[in-house]
Every structure is written in C-alpha cells, then in structure tokens.
Task: inverse folding
C-alpha cells in the first residue's frame, strides 16, 4: 500500500503510553487528510524486542485501524536500528516519513508544520527543541556539551535536535545507501546535504513509563556519535604524543645540566608523578584507538542491522 506520509515509531516496552500515542497520531493523520495536506497516512510501529505487551497492543491497533501497522524485530537491536527498520519500510511505501519516539515528549502537532515545510520544497525537516525545561540540570548541560563537542570535533549535528524529523523519499533512499553498521542517524542525516528546514517546538514531560536512555546508554550513544563522525580524537592523540616528547626532551636536558653541576637530581616524587601521568595518558590513548578498531571490526563483519520476526497490518 502506497501512502503519502508514514510516521515511524520505535518502541521498547511502551505498553503504558501506546494507547495514547496511537490516539494522538491517528488524530494527526486524520487532520492532515481533512486539510488536504496528505491523501493517506500510516503509523509504522517498530517493536524493538519488547518484553511487555507492546507487540500485542500493536497487533490490536492494526486490526482496528487500517492506518496502523507494525514490525516486530527478532531481538532488541537498539533504538537507531529500530528507526532504520521503519525507514526502510517507509522508503518503499511512502512519499515521506516522520520519525518520532513513542513517549509523546515530542510535540505531535509539529508534524503538520513539518508537512507544510516538506510541501514547500524541503527534503529534510528537523524538529528542534526551543528549550529544555523538562530536562534535569545534569541532562540539560551534558546534552548541550555533547552538541558543542560534536561540532568542535567536526561532526555535523543540528543543535537541540534528536530523532524527530521528516524525510522525503529521495532523502530516505539516499540515507539507506549508507553502508555502515555503526548507526548515528543524527549525523548521517545532516551529512546528506539536501534542502532542509526546521520546525521549533516545546518538549513535554514523558507521560508514563521510564526513560529508555539512562546515563550509561547516553554515554555510549555520545561515544558512538563522536567516533562515527570524527577522527580528530586520533589526531589529538598524536599531538599529545608530540607534547610528551617535548616534555621528555626538556627533562633530559634538565637532568644533564643538574648532573654536570654536581647536584642531586630530584627523584621519587617527580618520577612517580611522571609515570602515573604518562601511563594514564597511554591507556586513554589506547582506549580511544580501541573504540575505532572496534568499529572497524563491526563494519567488516557486515552483519544485518536487524531481522523481522513478525508483521502486523502490512497488507
């Protein structure tokens, strides 16, 4: 079935919010159809290996409403791969796709503005948060630091944009041509180079359930983003090595001068500090290099992003 707009919603243990999510998204599609902005729309739920009743609810919604369909992944592949699965489906069945999380923190009413911008000629429309009032002090400042760090390291990311965006068919097909297995969609979409627009909105509180991005996953996601789109950390390691060589040359000259003067060279304290500092720096450098080597390892294996176990409402 061909549709004008597919709304891709990755889900992981979202049974508490899925009823309200479906109600609001179907209402958005109905409003767009009545306004003549689209002829037909589809909600594509992607169940990322949920352990609760998420898939059961998706199947129920698909039976009740032809505008709802679902893909159930065979295992928990991760948020980015679940998004990828939905976008692959949308690239073959829709003229454009909006990606949005199931927790309803992103403003569904902004989808109408995204469609307007798309009809106005934009290939990619970013949903950008105006403020981060709903975030804790820690999350707000760490997120802002991440965006600044990504841009400083040469990565292309849109400030205060997560994965709430509209992409038309051409942009979707271009994105799916990317062969990498380490997915960081925020950077990948920004690197496409098509015509873009931005829609600003206020982010809401999560309606129910728990965040699927605790601190550990946030740190891992940030590392993936940095190492997927920038080699500058490797260059900084080389610069650090050069700095240590200069320090070593200065230390050698100092040692020779003191020895020639017949003075005792200060020993244990300076030696201990130097060993710990240089040793820690070497381990940090090896860790950064290891991140890149690990990504190369994943890429060369060329494993599929996901496997679909079941489908619902795809007829």
Result:
């Amino acid at each position: 079935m061909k549709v004008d707009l597919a709304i891709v919603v990755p889900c992981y243990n979202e049974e508490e919010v899925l009823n309200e999510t479906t109600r609001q998204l179907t209402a958005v599609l109905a409003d767009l159809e009545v306004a003549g902005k689209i002829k037909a729309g589809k909600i594509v739920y992607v169940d990322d290996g949920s352990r609760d009743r998420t898939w059961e609810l998706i199947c129920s919604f698909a039976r009740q409403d032809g505008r709802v369909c679902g893909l159930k992944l065979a295992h928990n592949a991760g948020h980015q791969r679940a998004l990828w699965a939905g976008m692959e489906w949308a690239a073959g069945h829709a003229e454009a796709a909006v990606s949005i999380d199931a927790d309803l923190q992103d403003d569904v009413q902004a989808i109408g503005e995204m469609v307007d911008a798309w009809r106005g000629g934009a290939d990619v429309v970013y949903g950008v948060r105006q403020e981060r009032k709903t975030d804790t002090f820690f999350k707000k400042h760490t997120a802002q630091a991440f965006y600044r760090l990504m841009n400083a390291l040469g990565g292309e990311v849109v400030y205060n944009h997560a994965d709430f965006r509209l992409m038309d068919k051409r942009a979707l097909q271009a994105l799916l041509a990317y062969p990498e297995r380490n997915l960081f969609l925020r950077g990948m979409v920004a690197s496409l180079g098509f015509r873009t627009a931005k829609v600003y909105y206020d982010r809401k509180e999560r309606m129910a359930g728990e965040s699927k991005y605790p601190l550990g996953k946030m740190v891992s996601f940030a590392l993936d983003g940095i190492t997927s789109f920038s080699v500058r950390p490797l260059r900084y390691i080389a610069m650090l090595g050069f700095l240590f060589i200069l320090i070593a040359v200065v230390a050698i000259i100092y040692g020779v001068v003191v020895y020639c003067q017949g003075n005792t060279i200060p020993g244990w304290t300076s030696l201990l500090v130097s060993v710990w500092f240089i040793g820690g720096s070497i381990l940090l450098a090896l860790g950064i290099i290891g991140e890149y080597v690990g990504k190369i390892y994943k890429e060369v294996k060329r494993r599929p992003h996901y496997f679909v176990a079941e489908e619902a409402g795809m007829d």
